[in-house]
Amino acid sequence: MQNNSVYNNVTQWQLLLLAISFLTRIPVKLRFDVSTAHLNQASRYFAFVGLLLGGLLALSYGVFQLLFPPSISILLMMAIGLLLTGAFHEDGWADVWDGFGGGWQVEQKLAIMKDSRLGTYGAAALFIILLIKFQSLLFLSESLSSVLSAILLGQCLSRMVATSLIMSMDYVSEDATSKVKPLAMHLSVTSLTILLLTAAALLAGLILLGIISWQSALIISAVLLLLRLILISWFKRQLGGYTGDCLGAAQQLSEIAIYLTLVSLL
To answer: Which of 24, 175, 184, 236 is least enclosed, having the fewest CB within 10 Å?
Structure first.
């Protein structure tokens, strides 16, 4: 029986630590035996983990820009991001493009996506998305508050969008070996609510601080809602559902959508 503080004798704090352990390389001590049900429940904190990552990356950029020009500071910050996450989502992005670009049937696409080798489609897609991130953040770095808020929004809201897809699509069962398999059971209303509240709290906080306007917040929300619909249509057309790699690709696309939206609003 689930209540507000404990799920199968595991506290919400422990579920947050599990979410951190799943999405990052940050060492945490989990003092319980992790089950698939626990990992599914921990997904409610994925947007919050994104906020934590955004805070660490924003802090690192703030320090680097005291010593180096913006271009070098952004590259160093991006490198730290890859180290903190183990390039978890970037790997999914590359695998999706390899699979969707190199396979004709669903089974072929899934087989290619499981292959640990990086293909031409994946390599090109990875290069392009990293370059877009760099160029967008470099443009936004003309204002320190703009680039720091972009980092926070990009890391938090993108993970909210990616995780929310679990509620709207079926998991592709052939991808049974994926690390994301335990998340595929469902996304509860409570988990979705926490994801949305985390994103909303960040947007509200930036509005209250005068860093972004409420109009900008609405535009970003509308862009992400439209992107979410496009992602659902794309994944269903390609696979009939989603895999863990699809969620990684969704996070990456959502992140650059946020950066490009902020660039267009300046």
So the answer is: 236
